[in-house]
Predict the structure.
Amino acid sequence: MATTTATIDIPVPAERVWQLIGGFGSLPDWLPYIPASTLSEGGRVRSLTDEEGRVIAERLEAFDNQARTYSYSILQAPFPVTGYRSTLTVHEVPGGQSRVEWSGTFTPAGTSEEEAITLFYGIYTEGLAALKKTLDA
């Protein structure tokens, strides 16, 4: 099983960051390469559409509003991995700032571990940069 983690420090209070990203259906609000998200099964499954029209289905596995974190798994996606589970967490940092961490574990399928790690590390770092840009606007 492979893992990767990306973090970013944002000069915004953790509660404000969580208000933006804490909703399981909120990716289109801050992630430009996911323009659409539809919730089903009482908000526990999200169907995302990427810029190329591909559908990614994900299930909410754990949610803790007080700790500002949630974990999800992939049900369907065009990625070369199986057993994918990811966690998104907003940590409070002294001085009214926050540190956002996006991590994932997965098993490469039809690709090398290095390639799979590079793919998801890129998704996470690009996503966190987009989050920071959204909050700076």
Notes: The chain has a mean pLDDT of 96. Residues 2-25+60-136 form a domain with the Alpha-D-Glucose-1,6-Bisphosphate; Chain A, domain 4 fold (CATH 3.30.530.20).
